[in-house]
Amino acid sequence: NGNNVGGNSVGGSGSGGGSDEPPPPPALLSDVTPEAFALHGASLPERERKRAAHFFGETARVTAGMTAWRRGDLAALGDLVNASGVSSIDNYECGCPPMTTLRGIMAETPGVLGARFSGAGFRGCCLGLVEPALAAAAA
Question: Which residues, at least 6 apart from 65, have a Cβ–Cβ distance to it below 8 Å?
Answer without folding.
Answer: 77, 80, 81
